[in-house]
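Aim 2 progress update. The chain analyzed this quarter is reproduced below.
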Amino acid sequence: MFAYSVELALHGLRRFPKTTALAVMTVAIGMAASVTTLALLHMLSADPLPGLSRHLYIAWVDTVQAKPQNYTSLDGATTYDFKRLKMPDTEVLMAAHKAVEQTVAADIWKRVDGDAGRHFDEAVLATTGDFIPMFGVALRDGRTWTAQEDQAHAPVAVIDTELAQKLFGTAGAVGRVVRINNHAFRVIGVSQPYAPQPHFYGLNEWSFSGSSRESVFVPYRAALDAGIAPTGTDGCDDATDKNMTMLHVDPVHCAWLEYWVQLDTPQEVAAYRSYLDRYAQQQASLSSYGKKPQSQLLSVREWLMLQNVIPDNVRLNAWLAGSFLMLCMMNVAGLLAAKFMRRGTEVGIRRALGASRRSVMLQHLVEAGLICLLGGVLAWPLTLLGLALLRMQDQGFTDLARLDVTMFASLFALALLVGLLVGLLPSWRVSRIQPGLQIKSA
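Predicted structure tokens:
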């Protein structure tokens, strides 16, 4: 039965070719517009670290000794809320070791010097040795630094293969020396380029960018010893020198470190949240600044939602493209209804010869599905063209506009769904044709 319906549907496609071509083009344009925006939204909302991010949480406690209205960045222009901590608090939290693993992170742009006078301005991540296994940084050679080296302020570094190639002409850079801020750091590890999308652990630097990423990882204590000062902060104590600028942040009295913990079970999450609450309650001195105890423990997904990482215009464009697809579907449904009803006499004869309403409806549903599948095939290159045009727009995230396997499959799944929706009413109407009236009129 189904094979016969397909045969009739293919025959129906060849009849009224102009109407068929117009329906295919209308479906293709609507689907291409919709899938283009959905593909970008899909890439932007993807899990930045599949398999790892569900165990990572950003921990924050408000310990900045300043009135709420003064709890702003040092430039006085923008209020940041990246949930950063002061270094003394991160030291206490890490010493307590209430999580499976914990680390800090702060991005700093510095000139990195290698052999033969080669130097480049690079993003340096001041962190701890636990960052590399916690965040899934893939080591090609060497190792990360140990907790003992962290405590000893050891001037060591892990660099990625691309920077190693630029500085030394080879990816085998373990044992070499790089100079950061005119201080020597021994390379103990070489990693693969690391650029999770979005850059969720340092949204103050960039959100989405495959080209901008940290290429150097160093112990944050050794970075401070080398005069590699933090350049961004959520706020500073009232005791901070007011002559300081954003380029010279007081690492003790300013909140500049993101603090991340690894928690593997819901019980560990609940226990750590209680620990943070107790730690916040201990900040009794904040009451004199008119501040109540505040603490938060946010998963990666909660963190990204709080920061509204996906640009509003991407969501708006997705809604507009979806609305455009609906409009195209309504037009195609009208075209199919007109096309099918023009076969009234043929359908009436089939019904008089014993064809059931079900078989008539199935034939026309299959024909609608084939039209929309052809529209999906045509929408594929149109979608690739739309994504290429998006990548030409330098908006900091459009370079992620790609059609992955999931969205490729979704394109044709959407084509089948559209075929079912647009063909349902026209197919039902043509199946209700009374055979006697059609034969009499013939």
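The CA atoms of residues 208 and 395 lie 9 Å apart. The longest strand covers residues 101-113. These observations will guide the mutagenesis experiments scheduled for the next reporting period.
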